[in-house]
UniProtKB/TrEMBL annotation, chains A, B:
Protein name as annotated: Glutathione S-transferase rho
InterPro entries in alphabetical order: Glutathione-S-Trfase_C-like (IPR010987), Glutathione-S-Trfase_C_sf (IPR036282), Glutathione_S-Trfase (IPR040079), Glutathione_S-Trfase_N (IPR004045), GST_C (IPR004046), Thioredoxin-like_sf (IPR036249)
Ranges where the GST C-terminal domain occurs: 131-255
Domain (GST N-terminal): residue spans on this chain: 42-124
Recorded family membership: Belongs to the GST superfamily.
Pfam families hit by this protein: GST_C_3, GST_N_3
Database matches in Gene3D superfamilies: 1.20.1050.10, Glutaredoxin (3.40.30.10)
């Protein structure tokens, strides 16, 4: 272990983290040397799909933990590549993301994010806060995000999930109402919060939930009816880890607008 | 902080943990003194319902962390008490469990379990394992348990969730098939595992997932078709933390058998 730091909070740096390219940033005061630890994560593999919030969360976590140069492959849900041999070898459920670190396979997006924080605690952004209230809120929001994502999916993919002969307008309407109620709860969570979902620093809650809100807005979710969600989205969308991993299929233009009446 | 231990792994014990009743166990070799730290958790409140896996998980976690004497109130879903004022004051979603520690409210069962481990790391059972492979698997299984619980719910509560005019036998059948597929995946996870879901020690994966399997079996899930699940269930059901918190409404007799053809 090397302890590196001068004038900044010291960080516990694994020597293997200092393989090139590590960045030596010299600021305007030459005596102030900051070493940012960047790991060339050649022992990691991520199979992912563009525009999938669960994949995006993992990519953001990797950036925040300064894990660069991992093996990655962009695959296509439209082509059904989540059921391809290379995905199934890692994730028998045939879902994105599929992730491997050395010999350890971890599936489920949130699980991968927690794993990365656990394994690289002292590298990059600290993604689990310190205070009891912040810790409790972070965990709560992450587990509340599961029904949020589910409710968005039930509106967006109703026709895909439900066979034609079983579809009912009343069910569609009920799903929409459930999503509206859910979004109101999140408006409440975001009321008076600063730049982040929890306390004064970026945490796993942001890693996991920002992509869900971005997906909501991308698919037509109203910025007017959910101003706190919209403000949060705008504050974070230019964060380097988020901007760098912005879904490539989203860059060309807007989404479908399916959620416009939510 | 006091460091207590002789002949056993030492534990970092908070003095407040030694308020009575702390247990001083003297084994057959009098020089070997083991102090088990028990906190009288009078600053915690749990509102819960009997037979709810999310509530049960929290109760198991509290036992494993040696948190005793917390304020608790058994309420009734049948009476709609999840929407009562006292629940809504803690959990605006009107769901069990509702949990508070000092001034910190934490809702969502898994979030509460993680919070307890985070806040009482050095007390009671260590619920997050050490090794990378074990950590990754634990997180994966916990997040995979969300769709498992959801699929059980979709079979058990179809008539409650879906209005009469929207019900279809084909949907019921599809939900059953989805649960069967899910259970097969868990049979695979449990193939060749020892007493616990992850590695050689009890972890948050057991805290959270044992109650889900118990619920499956309680409601008629087949021990013959899912022998690994049944074996796991039998190995853990007499563990003190589990036995002590066994749902009181389950003691009088078997459940409904709704899952018997899964």
């Amino acid at each position: 272990m090397w302890w590196v730091g001068a004038g900044y909070k010291t960080r516990n740096v694994d020597p293997s983290a200092l393989t090139p390219p590590s960045f030596l940033l010299l600021n305007s005061r030459p005596q102030l040397l900051l070493v940012i630890s960047v790991t060339m994560a050649k022992d990691m593999t991520l199979l992912w799909a563009s525009g999938s919030p669960p994949c995006w969360g993992v990519q953001i976590a990797l950036e925040e933990k300064n894990l660069q140069g991992y093996n990655q492959k962009l695959l296509s849900v439209a082509k059904g590549e989540q059921k391809s041999k290379e995905v199934l070898e890692i994730n028998p459920r045939g879902q994105f993301p599929a992730f491997k670190h050395k010999n350890t396979i971890v599936n489920e997006s949130c699980a991968i994010c927690f794993y990365l924080e656990n394994q690289f605690k002292s590298q990059g952004t600290q993604l689990i806060p310190e205070g009891a209230a912040e810790v409790g809120l972070m965990y709560q929001l992450i587990f509340e995000a599961q029904p949020l994502a589910q409710k968005i999916g039930e509106v967006l993919y109703y026709n895909w999930k439900v066979p034609e002969g079983e579809r009912h307008d009343s069910a569609v309407q009920r799903n929409k109402e459930a999503l509206k109620e859910e979004m109101k709860i999140w408006e409440g969570h975001l009321q008076g919060c600063g730049d982040f979902l929890v306390g004064k620093s970026f945490s796993l809650a942001d890693v996991i939930i920002f992509p869900v809100f971005a997906y909501f807005i991308r698919n037509g979710g109203s910025e007017e009816r959910y101003p706190n969600v919209a403000a949060y989205y705008k504050k974070l969308r230019d964060r380097p880890s988020i901007k760098k991993t912005w879904p490539p299929t989203w860059i060309d233009g807007p989404g479908m607008g399916t959620l416009k009446d939510i």
